[in-house]
Amino acid sequence: MEKLIITAAICGAEVTKEHNPAVPYTVQEIAKEAYSAYKAGASIIHLHVREDDGTPTQKKQRYEECIKAIKEKCPDVIVQPSTGGSVGMSSAERLEPIELKPEMATLDCGTLNFGGDEVFVNTENMIKEFGKKMIDMDVKPEVEVFDKSMIDMAIRLSKKGFIKEPIHFSFVMGVNGGISGDLRDFLFLKESLPYGSTYSVAGIGKFEFTLAVASIISGGHVRVGFEDNIYLAKGVIAKSNGELVEKVVRLAKEFGRDIATPTEARKILGLN
Question: Whole-number mean pLDDT of the chain?
Answer without folding.
Answer: 97
